[in-house]
Design goal:
This protein is 43% helix and 12% strand. It is α/β, with parallel strands linked by helices. Strand 10 and strand 11 form a beta hairpin. The longest helix has 27 residues. The protein binds pyridoxal-5'-phosphate. The site of pyridoxal-5'-phosphate (PLP) has 17 residues, from helix 6.
Length: 502
């Protein structure tokens, strides 16, 4: 390579130049600042994916032989495209999903993670990430109360992976040789007990682990959509009679659909009696642990063998940051069948290796997302998190109370967390038209790009689903949402009637 070109715009090493970084990062900061300052009520502007592909393609260079630094205009367009095509999670109109409008400084810390690029599975590569993981484990355990010397936590990239890992640990714990021998010669038919309302990552785990979805034992739910502990025993006994060896019971602390919290203490008693591993999927609601006010709703959580919490949901840090807790450290190493012995290594040389999280997690190169959480916890402490969670849960209750007084709305469940599902109810309607109406309302709301709400199928009928993740949402916004739904609903009902009379 001709060294005389060094510094020219055609030198590839300029791409890695710190001044270029500063110049362009300033543009990013300016735009993100404006984005965060925008408090307009809006939802999601859905762009046709073909159109978006076209817009994205227009930003791509056609010159693959040489290059120059991107012109500012194109760089700005690229950032705008990224920002504008997202669900506006920082707007009070965002009421539809579980990922949060994040604490902005957590995003700034996340950028450090991207630049210094410290994968988090091994202490050597990710020193602070591994220490942060240990610290956050202990901070959380203040709310759980497990034996300091025995419990463990590992971070995973998302709740789906956290659930899979925990169920894998449970499986390997039950069937001693399965890691080596697979299902060959296994006498038992392994099965998992789950709620009818479990997250799809849980039922999917049965497929991934070779247990088979047919070996999912579905536990019935009550009107509040919680597992019915009173019939769970009978269902488990019946499964056993069918020859199934249920080794794990998965409960939810905050179902995805309505935020229902299963009766953890009662299920723990059943699990203990029958020798089952109790895993609690607290992806959504596990964060309530940090709230003194809400913690009692998770009563029984400390009796679980494992549970997960998604920090990118109700702990307001960037996606994806999941904490997977185990009551018993040795079991944390069962998922991937590592010997736990070196963890307790007394040898000074191995002290660092004892901080590796690799033995407990699937990912080899793992994003250091835990540092974002630790940094926010370090800088702000518990109360910011707990106050925001309390606010969101109270808001959901107030919204529910308001809905319950509206004659043309149907409430479905008393909210236990920050999720409220309901239907617009103009009067008697057949179930299929009733469902269609909710779908159409939801689509129209989202098309209008003022609010973003989701929907969920509850017992075969669509419900509109609101998830409060944003503290900027107030009574003013949810009453506006209700008026909007009513307005849309009335127009749609007229159209439906015209259709039916034709
Ligand atoms: C969101 C969610 C998951 C999945 O977690 P990801 O972080 O999206 O992978 C699992 N279980 C429940 C109850 C959830 O709400």
């Amino acid at each position: 390579m001709d060294m005389t070109t060094h510094g020219s715009m055609n030198d590839w090493s300029d791409v890695f130049d710190q001044d270029v970084f500063r110049e362009y990062a300033e543009i990013v900061l300016g735009k993100l600042g404006a984005y965060l300052a925008d408090r307009h009520v809006r939802g999601l502007k859905m762009v046709d994916p073909h159109e978006l592909t076209e817009s994205a393609r227009q930003l791509m260079t056609e010159n693959h032989q040489s290059f120059s630094q991107p012109d500012r205009e194109r760089f700005e367009k690229l950032i705008d495209l990224y920002i504008q095509t997202g669900i506006q999670v920082h707007s009070p109109g965002y009421m539809g999903r579980q990922f949060s409008g994040i604490m902005p400084l957590a995003g700034a810390i996340d950028m450090i993670g991207s630049i210094v690029n410290q994968p988090a599975s091994f202490y050597e590569a990710g020193q602070l990430p591994n220490v942060a993981e240990r610290i956050m484990a202990k901070e959380f355990n203040r709310f759980i109360g497990w034996d300091e010397e025995r419990f463990d936590m590992v971070s995973t990239s998302g709740g789906a992976l956290g659930n899979l890992t925990a169920i894998l640990a449970a499986r390997n714990d039950r069937y001693a040789d399965i890691w080596e021998k697979g299902y060959n010669n296994l006498q038992a038919i392994p099965a998992i007990a789950v709620s009818e309302e479990c997250h799809y990552s849980v039922s999917r785990a049965a497929g991934i682990l070779g247990i088979g979805e047919h070996q999912l034992v579905r536990l019935p739910i009550d009107a509040q959509r919680r597992i019915r502990a009173d019939v769970a025993e009978d269902v488990l006994a019946a499964a056993k009679n069918r020859g199934l060896d249920v080794f794990c019971l998965v409960a939810s602390a905050g179902t995805t659909s309505v935020g229902a919290i299963d009766p953890l203490d009662q299920l723990a008693a059943i699990a203990q009696k029958r020798g089952l591993w109790l895993h609690v999927d607290g992806a959504h609601g596990g964060s309530a642990l940090v709230s003194d006010h809400l913690r009692p709703r998770l009563n029984g959580l400390s009796l679980a063998d494992s549970f997960i919490v998604d920090a990118h949901k109700m702990l307001f840090v960037p996606t994806a940051c999941t904490l997977l807790f185990y009551k018993n450290r040795e079991k944390a190493y069962k998922a991937f069948k590592q010997e736990a012995s070196y963890v307790f290594e007394k040898d000074v040389d191995n002290r660092a290796a004892a901080f590796d999280s690799a033995g407990k997690n699937f990912e080899c190169t793992k994003r250091p997302a835990i540092v974002n959480l630790w940094a926010m916890w370090a800088l702000y402490g518990q109360s910011v998190f707990s106050q925001k969670i309390d606010y969101l849960v109270d808001l959901a209750q107030a919204f529910y109370d308001f809905l319950a007084t509206q004659d043309d709305f149907q409430v479905i469940h008393a909210p236990e967390l920050n999720i409220v599902c309901f239907r617009y109810f103009p009067g008697a309607m057949c179930a299929s038209a009733f469902s269609q109406l909710q779908d159409a309302i939801r689509n129209t709301i989202n098309q209008n790009n003022e609010f973003f709400v989701s929907k969920v199928d509850l017992d075969g009928v669509t419900a509109i689903r609101v998830v409060f993740m944003n503290h900027l949402i107030t009574e003013e916004h949810y009453t506006a949402l209700v008026s909007e739904i009513r307005k849309i609903g009335q127009v749609l009902c007229q159209e439906f009637e015209i259709e039916q009379s034709n």
